[in-house]
Write a structure and sequence with these properties.
This protein is of the alpha+beta class. It is built from 20 helices and 16 strands.
């Protein structure tokens, strides 16, 4: 017995050092059968050796794994690790390629422990139980994190439901063991959509770039214009080649001390990818983007992958996505394996820190042509009442009218008096704008119920679409081409070709049309995305959502499934 205890003490020391500096185990515990230890870990919902030991959110899943076998080891047969243990550890070690942190799953520690056993080390029953449950818990977490994300979006105020897409993790893992397909199971847990695959590919590039300490900030000056001499040109050239904005074949063209030629073209490509005016002039905003650490770009891609895990699985049909920081809308006909959009256009979104556009998913159910604009009471109070105090003719000039309710066909008052202004400020009177060329909603609006009066719509304010930054609305999303969007969502609906849409948008009356097939709409937020040609875009964290998501992830446990 003394020889066995000595051998297991050595093995336990190795396991403790490699798995997570485990506390000393009492001699009476060393010889505990594996099943006893496994039951203890599962019933306490806590693992003494893991980085994130407390696991109450995974207790049901661990019970589902071990109770059917009366808490016998899953990953050992007659004291010998199954081959799938190596497969699991390899997948955990590769978590970084999926935008996750291998340390969150104790990958390196599990790897070192496995290697010690594979080299001839011996484990006691207790050690076997601890190692077995550590493998299970790490794999449960990893598959869940890949499939639904580490953070529940509703905890961050994002109205997207991940509940319906949760996996039966115990059944998934048991099947993976029985069918010897650990790697395939992990791959299948990831979102099976082209944007996710493209971001993963970009993540690999930026991981390498972020690890290269030779990339240093460029020497900043107030402004560098094409033709200027500037000592930063060699470093700029190297950076742009690495990022793909400057073809390597063109990198040697021109004087190393002058900012000119292909280098200017490379900066313009860089500016376009970062939602800056692509004028080739390196000013304050361009310097800030050029000098943003590549580790920050890597992190943006990681956060993009996290958000894409919140999305539901998509089958067939139509889909509309608005990415708030990109000021862009994309529409897809699904399935389309390459992710090529059927429609894309610029949008205007809610003002940062004032009237931010909320993030949610809803089904578009109606299109309203030649619409009235029912002015929200908050806008009437904030904007219209002060204007009426200065100019009683403001309503008439803007095609607006005061009404008792939005459904009243005619205004209830015709003269602006102090009493009328008071009623308007209190919400007892309302304002609506008649359809026409001045109407704030343009020729059409697109409605998804239960959205807090947030919808997509056209606009007469066309100049806004010429700006790189377009957070200018009171919360709704203005679309650059409402006719094209209407044509997309109504495709196949009898009687609604482009000619009919154009007629309806021209009036002379408001017309509500129910969509025969509702269209999912996602008001989404990501500061990094990759086009189908591999172009990587990085965007300003307009509403500060990246910071909040990063803080939530950094807080660590619990990883609630």
């Amino acid at each position: 017995m003394m020889d066995l205890r000595a051998a297991t003490a050595v093995t336990l020391s190795t396991f403790a050092l490699t798995l997570l500096a485990a506390p000393t185990v009492r001699a009476a515990e060393v010889d505990a059968p594996a099943a006893v230890t496994i039951r203890e870990v599962v019933e306490q919902a806590s693992h003494p050796l893991m980085r994130w030991g407390a696991a109450p959110h995974y207790q049901d899943e661990m019970l589902g794994l071990y109770r059917p076998g009366d808490f016998a080891p899953l990953w050992f047969a007659d004291g010998v690790p199954r081959s799938q243990v190596r497969d699991v550890i390899d997948e955990l070690l590769a978590a970084g390629t999926r935008g996750l942190d291998p340390d969150d799953y104790d990958a390196a520690r599990l790897d070192a422990a496995w290697r010690a056993v594979a080299a001839g080390g011996r484990m006691s029953g207790r050690q076997e139980g601890l190692f077995d449950t550590a493998i299970s818990l790490a794999l449960l977490r990893h598959i869940s994190d890949l499939h639904i994300g580490r953070i529940n979006p509703k905890n961050l105020g994002v109205d997207m439901d991940i509940e319906h897409k949760k996996l039966d993790l115990a059944a998934v893992i048991r099947a993976a063991i029985d069918q010897d397909r650990i790697a395939a199971t992990v791959a299948e847990a990831e979102p099976q959509i082209a944007p996710y695959r493209r971001i993963k590919a970009a993540l690999e590039l930026y991981a390498r770039l972020a690890a290269d300490a030779s990339f240093q900030p460029l020497p900043a000056v107030p402004k560098v214009s094409p033709g200027d001499a500037w000592p930063g040109t060699p470093a700029l050239r190297r950076l742009l080649v690495a990022l793909g904005d400057l073809p390597a074949a063109e990198a040697t063209v021109g004087d190393d001390t002058v900012y000119a030629g292909p280098l200017v073209d490379g900066v313009m490509r860089f500016q376009a990818r970062h939602n800056l005016a692509a004028d080739g002039v390196i000013g304050k905003a361009t310097f800030e983007e050029l000098n943003t650490p590549l580790a920050v770009r890597y992190r943006q891609l990681q956060l993009a992958l996290e958000r894409l895990r919140w999305l539901p699985g998509f089958g067939e049909g139509r889909l509309v996505v608005v990415n708030i920081p990109a000021f862009r809308l994309w529409a897809w006909e699904l399935p389309n394996p390459d992710g090529r959009a059927a429609l894309a256009m610029d949008v205007v979104v809610g003002r940062a820190y004032h009237t931010e556009t909320p993030l949610f998913t809803r089904d578009m159910s109606h299109v309203v042509f030649y619409p009235f604009w029912n002015v929200p009471p908050s806008i009437a109070r904030r904007d219209i009442v002060p204007k009426l105090k200065k100019d009683p003719g403001y309503l008439a000039a803007e095609g607006m009218e005061l009404v008792d309710s939005y459904t009243q066909p005619a205004p209830s008052v015709t003269e602006v008096t102090p009493e009328v202004l008071d009623r308007l400020a209190r919400g007892a009177l309302k304002v609506r704008q008649r359809p026409g060329p001045k109407n704030a909603l343009g020729p059409a609006k697109f409605i998804f119920p239960d959205s807090g009066n947030i919808y997509l719509h056209g606009t007469p304010a066309r100049a806004a679409f010429g700006r790189p930054r377009r957070d200018l609305s009171s919360g709704c999303v203005r679309v650059a081409d409402p006719a094209a969007l209407a044509e997309f969502v109504l495709r196949g609906q009898t009687g609604w070709d482009r000619e009919a849409i154009d007629r309806a948008m021209a009036g002379p009356r408001e017309q509500w049309l129910r969509l025969e097939r509702h269209v999912p709409v996602f008001l989404f937020y990501t500061t990094a995305y990759v086009e189908i040609d591999g172009t990587v875009h990085f965007l300003h964290d307009l509403y500060g959502h990246d910071g909040r998501l990063e803080a939530a992830i950094a807080a660590g446990e619990p990883f609630a499934p």
